[in-house]
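This section describes the prediction task in plain terms. A model, or a person checking by hand, is given the sequence of a single protein chain and must write out its three-dimensional structure as a string of tokens. No templates, partner chains or ligands are provided. The sample shown here is typical of the held-out split.
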Amino acid sequence: LIKISRDTKRDAAGILKLKEQFVSQYGREPQSSELAELADMSVEQLIYTLEAVAPVHSLQESVGDGEDGAS
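The expected answer:
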């Protein structure tokens, strides 16, 4: 189990809010560089923050609908 700091969670929430505002204003998804500039952080920090709070999937979890015979 990996603990994510409160600061990282707070930063991620702010980034997601900025992203929503950008989409609402411009009608498109922002590029990482645009979002990083709005969040006043480097692209590397932005990516690290968003990856840190991304949902984690188990290696045991099934992927897809299983109709193609893959499991």
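For orientation: Helices lie at 6-26, 32-39, 43-52.
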